[in-house]
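Feature request, filed as a ticket because there's no other form

It would be nice if the structure record came with a short human-readable summary line next to the tokens. Right now we just get the raw output. Example of a typical job, pasted below so the devs can see what we mean:
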Amino acid sequence: MAEENNQSAGANGQAAGEQDKPQLQFALQRIYVKDISFEAPNSPSVFQHPFKPKVGLNLDTTSRQVGEGLHEVVVKVTAQVTHSEEGTTSFLAEVEQAGLFRIGGIEGQQLEHTLGAFCPNMLFPYARECIDNLVNRGGFPPLMLAPVNFEAIYAQRKKRESEQAQQPGEQTTQ
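Raw output as currently delivered:
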């Protein structure tokens, strides 16, 4: 009986301590296309030659707080495909895939990582599907973009920022 009382007191003490900590909250509220564009400036002549694509891909992510605990994250994917021999543009497809995330109890570096890597990883499959759909509707074969590791992109960006922050300090000490 004494052990039961000690266990319940420990559990109550733990519960009281947990109430003091901010409650972790992460929920995807909505996924939506913020902007979409497809251009095939050399149609229909581009279809009269064998399709020999050279793909240029550009990725960018942004985030902003839009309300209390509410963040919008946008993954921008731009695919420019040119004819590998002629250099003429076959098509340009651009999608800004966005998501609205409710995030609470996460702050500082952890919040920055969540917005810069975790959320884009969730949104990219939707952007990839949207790009493929656009390209297919434009009369071209789907691009079938490979998965992207936003964790690695985020780590590279943080490393660059760290190196750039150190460079001015190094110059003044010499």
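Something like this underneath would help us a lot:
DSSP finds three helices and four strands in the chain.
The beta strands are 25-39, 53-67, 70-83, 89-104.
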